[in-house]
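Form 12-C: Joint structure prediction
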Amino acid sequence: MSTETKCNPDLVRERAKCTFDVNELINLFYGSEKATKERRHFEDAVLAVKELKDAIPEEYLSHKERYENGVRKATILRDVYRDYKAKHNRDPPPNQITKAVIKDISPFLLHNGMFVPTIAGQGTPEQQAEWLPKAESMQIIGTYAQTELGHGSFIRGLETIATYDPKTEEFVLNNPTLTSFKWWPGGLGSTVNHCVVVAQLYINGKSHGIHPFIAQIRDLDTHKPLPGVKVGEIGPKMGFQTANNGFLGFDNFRIPRKNMLMKNAQVLKDGTFVKGINEKLTYGTMVMVRVGIVGDCSFYAALAATIAVRYSAVRHQSHIKASEPEAQILDYLTQQHKLFIAVASSHVYRNAYLWMEKMYTNVMKELSQDKQDNLPELHATACCLKAVCSRDAGSLVEECRLACGGHGYMASSNLPLTYGVTIAAVTYEGERTVLLLQTARYLMKAWMAALKGKVLSPSVSYLLNSLKESKKPWQNTPEGIVKGFQHVSFGKVKAAYETIQKYMKQGKDYEDAWNLASVQLVKASEAHSRAILCEVSWEAVCSSSASPNLSRVLQQLAQLYLTYWTLETSGDLLLYSNITKDDLIILRDKYEELLVAIRPNAVGLVDGFDLRDEILNSTLGSYDGRVYERLMEEALKSPLNQETVNSSFHKYLKPMMEKAKL
Ligand SMILES: CCCCCCCCCCCCCCCCC/C=C/C(=O)SCCNC(=O)CCNC(=O)[C@H](O)C(C)(C)COP(=O)(O)OP(=O)(O)OC[C@H]1O[C@@H](n2cnc3c(N)ncnc32)[C@H](O)[C@@H]1OP(=O)(O)O
Ligand SMILES: Cc1cc2nc3c(=O)[nH]c(=O)nc-3n(C[C@H](O)[C@H](O)[C@H](O)COP(=O)(O)OP(=O)(O)OC[C@H]3O[C@@H](n4cnc5c(N)ncnc54)[C@H](O)[C@@H]3O)c2cc1C
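Section 2 - Result
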């Protein structure tokens, strides 16, 4: 980090006000002092590589140049990872330094994030032995090709076909229609030579559902598409410009039998199909990534909050009191209302991610012992938390951007790109509504079990408690608010269930009744997610090992989250809990008190995310607060500022002006 001496004086004053030890917060957020040291050490190593620095901002490059620069830097970054591993005999610690290097999304994201994990998770030990060493060492580069032009959400509807030919012991891949073309996979456009292709398996004319296959699609030497492969890039998007998303179609393309990933289902040489213990295990990589996305949401909220809070400490505009100098915009309560929820949410998502990671690890361990009982809970929880955290994080990033006024609209603030990248997570890895409806299925089953007095899984056991406690008075404490959110979820789950029953009594079948109740079902899932986020995050701060000074601030943040959402969803609470109008007025006042209490620590709290200037990549958010200098320095990099008079003056403007004189 930069030294205090060169800092903007407002930021120096802000840091002097901080009531807790920022380093303690950093170590707590990232796990330990050792984890912080190792992460910083690795980040230093990456940033020391001169070739990774960009000569001009990415925005001035063409689509093609941006991609090529992305690949160039991704390969150098990969070398740094490899060298670290060779030297330390372990992978680098979790870090976000790719953001400092690639800025947008790496063309290798899908290789590392889904191709390698799918081989590891869906391959037999022999298949892992064949492909993992090559993939991990980047001798082959791959992606996860599932979504098609016609189908993304409903994957049982995928149209890519893999027909088994027992004579040659091969699968024949085909994309018979335009809508069957793979569309979206990252890296597919021009980067990868392999992919996991999710396709409908046919044996002797019989369909056996969707399964993952490994296909080599480009020649390893020439990189030309192999015969029978049509592949390309899908073009510019809202973000993800360097992710190199592509399309792919096969025409009678043959792959050996061993290329079907067969940890779950298998196809024997003679074409016998052997079912796996649970066909949904084929969807395993998606579950893992959904858990990871909750962690990503924490990062994006932290990044946007750091930029907007630091900028708001530096920026002065208007007066709170006419007799005083222009105020730091961070002193306006409305600004605190916009920003502090992003700081608090980042901590909430982080704690939710750590909680989900534990659940994921336990279930994977159980699955390795053929125990599947907790898989539905993992799937349902990963779906709804991914859906709610990504949508909220997108909104928080946008709010931070708007809170920076005009300068937040500048690409150099890095807030527009951050929004484009964050909001993509609402759609990828399962569209929000679709995933919330998956959770709703689980909630309906849980509710029916609750009605029968059965024991429920831990994440929904509150449904039983709420059933018993519905008469208890509201308590204006964090624990009381957590219970309140559980009551809302309980109320919405019950109402959605009863709506389905109502339609069925009117003669509708279950599917139609489900569709007619689906707005309520989605809202029940959202309420369930909020109840989990509130409970998990409050428990995490209460059980944290932080010092009293830090603990006080972390509790304030967690309470801010609880109170913010109580006020945002007061209608639901009035409907489904015993909260009163007077309680809400007390909580409104409490919320405002929390903003004021957090205000002196705002800069310390975002410093506690420990995001380097290179990761923030923002004129508005750097540690030293040289906002105006940086805005001007970046503007001067515009190619239009490299010449005093642009040729368009002589070509178009001057002739127009002359014509106008006639
Ligand atoms: C330790 C963990 C953390 C590790 C951290 C590291 C992670 C790395 C993160 C870094 C990020 C890197 C990658 C970023 C990727 C960005 C690029 C994006 C990629 C993509 O988008 S890939 C494509 C993603 N596509 C989707 O998500 C498709 C969404 N659709 C579906 O998943 C399914 O179609 C469906 C679930 C919506 C419906 O499926 P289906 O029709 O087959 O099922 P039903 O609705 O009929 O339900 C039947 C029962 O099956 C259960 N079910 C469904 N899915 C699962 C599952 N995955 N697991 C378990 N059970 C499942 C249902 O609940 C139903 O059960 P029921 O009992 O009958 O009710
Ligand atoms: C940036 C980005 C990167 C991606 N990367 C990859 C990748 O690497 N590999 C890959 O395979 N895919 C990738 N995808 C594809 C992504 O997984 C899909 O776009 C996503 O799963 C949503 O599917 P869809 O596009 O078919 O949306 P649709 O399902 O068509 O959604 C459109 C609308 O229909 C609604 N809808 C659909 N079904 C239902 C239902 N059953 N009930 C109620 N409403 C419904 C949705 O709620 C939504 O409002 C990527 C997408 C993006 C945006």
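Section 3 - Comments
The domain at 109-276 is CATH 2.40.110.10 (Butyryl-CoA Dehydrogenase, subunit A; domain 2). The first strand starts at residue 142 and ends at 145.
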